[in-house]
Design a protein that fits this description.
alpha/beta; TIM Barrel; 8-stranded mixed β-sheet; 12 helices; 8 strands; about 10% strand; disordered N terminus
Amino acid sequence: MTDAPDAARLRHPEKAHRPDNPVQLRKPDWIRVKAPTSAEYEQTRALVREHKLATVCEEAACPNIGQCWQKKHATFMILGSVCTRACSFCNIATGRPDLLDPHEPQRVAEATRKLGLTHVVITSVDRDDLPDGGAQHFVDTINAVRKESPGTTVEILTPDFQKKPGAAELIAAVKPDVFNHNLETVPRLYPTIRPGARYFGSLELLKSIKRIDPHLFTKSGIMVGLGETKEEVLQVMDDMRSADVDFLTIGQYLQPTPKHAAVDRFVHPDEFAYYTEMAKGKGFHMVSASALTRSSYFAGDDFRKLKENREAQLHAHTR
């Protein structure tokens, strides 16, 4: 005997939103954010427009945009604004990609200098159409930022460079201060959430970076609230540690539009605290897990803590 829809919803209210059940889950208080209104937000927005840059803050409808742009923190998105993939969680446009802009690295570098960034995060769309997946464009952008703003540390959040031989070597050679590639979700959900990607391909990219240069900081993250189990999240943590990932981020998935994957549930802060403690126990040098955590949220502050934590752990092992 099966439950009537109303009875099932009463017993499992957190699982009320399904393709055959259009009821929208109500956002809990801990995930509500204010609309951006500050003068600093408008100044950052104007600078981004002046340099004709794309930011993942806007393209992915990040809930932290008001807080980050108020502090003049922005995550620049290179390689155009159209992605060759169609992930069901992502709000970035999919289709025929833009022509590669050779002036984009310099514009990113100039914006970094004008914003006075001490730490910059650079990400991109997937570019499966390019022979190297856009790896050389990342290198050019890193070099341009370092020339224009020598005191700025550079964190990159890359695509998986699937079937692009030599891409990892190109990236590692320029030594970004942090190399980030997100696993995004648990392996079981890849066919529906990240259909154009391969879980173990992404894991291998993270392993490759560490094999090439064991001293590079690596970072990866997942979203929760997509239907994963706690056990699956813990297994992903183990997989990341097998790749020697230094920094783990876990954040709540938010549905960008009704056409995207539905939110399975809103994860309680206590569960994020549990993941934080488990991740620390597994040996990550840095963990950021909360409803509003995103890959680049407080990235500069977290990078400084990451360095301090790794140095402290290395010192403890040598005593």
